[in-house]
From TrEMBL:
PANTHER family: LIPOPROTEIN YIAD-RELATED (PTHR30329:SF21), STATOR ELEMENT OF FLAGELLAR MOTOR COMPLEX (PTHR30329). Residues 149-170 have a biased composition (Basic and acidic residues). Residues 1-20 form the signal peptide. It comes from the Bacteria. Residues 45-170 form the OmpA-like domain. Residues 135-170 are annotated as: Disordered. This is Outer membrane protein, OmpA/MotB family. It holds the Pfam family OmpA. It comes from Anaeromyxobacter dehalogenans (strain 2CP-C). InterPro entries: Bact_OuterMem_StrucFunc, OmpA-like, OmpA-like_sf.
Amino acid sequence: MTRLALAAVITLALAAPAAAQVPWDAAKKAAGQATVGKLEKEINRRLLEEGRKNQCSFKTDNDQLEPGCDQKMKRLSNALVDAKKRLNGAGVKNFKFVVSGHTDTSGSAAHNQELSARRAAVIEKELVARGIPQAEIESVGMGSKKPLVKPDDTPAKKAKNRRYELQVRL
């Protein structure tokens, strides 16, 4: 066997285990992503549920919270702490909690966008005051773009669309 042929055989022999490892690594990565995706869905379902149970009311056409929201904000911050523990336990480090503010369809789209952003920022501030790190929270205004109830042509339906939601984004 020539030196060149021997070198080729050795190279192939050494490369074979590495080549066999690539599909295994890909499978491990896919399984990890599926597990993290499932965890993200589960956490978002819980956060959405907690947000709906713990809605604080705002004064009409403004970003001031009505009195009596302390316990609700405490429960929301506890839900975020629990979510953070689960994410950290799964090895997920890069995530953001997103607070989205929503309005009903009354008023102009530009006004609703700005109002929903201010309301989301108020909730973000409340959560930070209760120990959630600022760097882990982002607030966004959605205006009336994603209503829960269509059409919102009664006071009760409008009230359902005026809300905030919490989600984790990985």
